[in-house]
Amino acid sequence: MHMNDLIPIGQLAERTGLSISAIRFYETKGLVKPMRNNGGQRRFLRSDIRRLSFVLIAQQLGLPLSNIAEVFEKLPSERTPTQSDWTKISKSIRGELDGRIQKLTRMRDNLDDCIGCGCLSLKKCALYNADDKASARGAGPQYLLGERTTNNNDAMR
After folding, report:
1. What is the three-class DSSP state of 136?
2. In sequence order, what DSSP letters do the residues of 27-82 get, joined into one string?
3. Which of 20, 58, 78, 126 has the lowest CB atom count within 10 Å?
4. 8 pLDDT exceeds 60?
5. Distance between first and last Cα of the chain
6. Cβ(86)–Cβ(108) under 8 Å?
7. What is the pTM of this model?
8. Residue (of 81, 78, 56, 65) closest to 30 by Cα position
9. What is the reported pLDDT for 157?
10. Is 112 helix (H, G, I), strand (E, B) or coil?
11. Measured between alpha carbons, how far is residue 84 from residues 53, 76, 80, 120 in Å?
């Protein structure tokens, strides 16, 4: 490894748009692992720019840090990850992202109906839960979380 492969925390902050304290936080979570120079100062691999950028994007997509840390365990720590390494990561989280997209789409579509509804007609309400039938599926907003098997008119009968 060459000295040019390592950058100080300030430069990493500048390149990622993160504060130094945020980078230190991510370090405590094991998402980046700096080396120390002779003076004890943190030095990061240039590839940590990409790692932290991935963290920012993944968090914006709703992935918890614990999941991101699991994903990063699959990346090599001794070298810069390759395109192949990142492709494996992408494939490993694709199912979770697809599930989130489906839930968000369902919520958006149901909220579109709700906003215009004004709750004037329970026969048309996408979230109406007659006789608490959704509780059989478990706790929480089941009509938004899972596939709805009955339409609202059936639930009203």
Report:
1. helix
2. HHTTS---EE-TTS-EEEETHHHHHHHHHHHHHHTT--HHHHHHHHTTS-SSSPPP
3. 78
4. yes
5. 71
6. no
7. 0.67
8. 65
9. 32
10. helix
11. 18, 11, 11, 54
Closest of 89, 52, 53 to residue 70, by C-alpha? 89
The pLDDT of residue 40 is: 87
User: How many alpha carbons lie under 13 Å from residue 3 in its C-beta half-sphere?
Assistant: 2
Return the pLDDT at 81: 82
Residue 43: both structure tokens together? 């030095």
Cα within 13 Å of Cα(114), Cβ side = 10
In the predicted structure, residue 30 carries a pLDDT above the cut 70: yes
- List b or e across 109-142, with b for residues whose CB sees 16 or more CB atoms inside 10 angstroms: ebeeeeeeeeeeeeeebbbbeeeeebeeeeeeeb
How far is Cα 70 from Cα 75, in angstroms, rounded to an integer?
A: 10
Q: Does the pLDDT of residue 43 top 60, yes or no?
A: yes
Q: Of 139, 141, 74, whose CA–CA distance to 114 is shortest?
A: 141
Using CA atoms, how far apart are residues 97 and 5, in angstroms rounded to an integer?
Answer: 32
**φ and ψ at residue 122, rounded to 5 degrees:** -70, -20
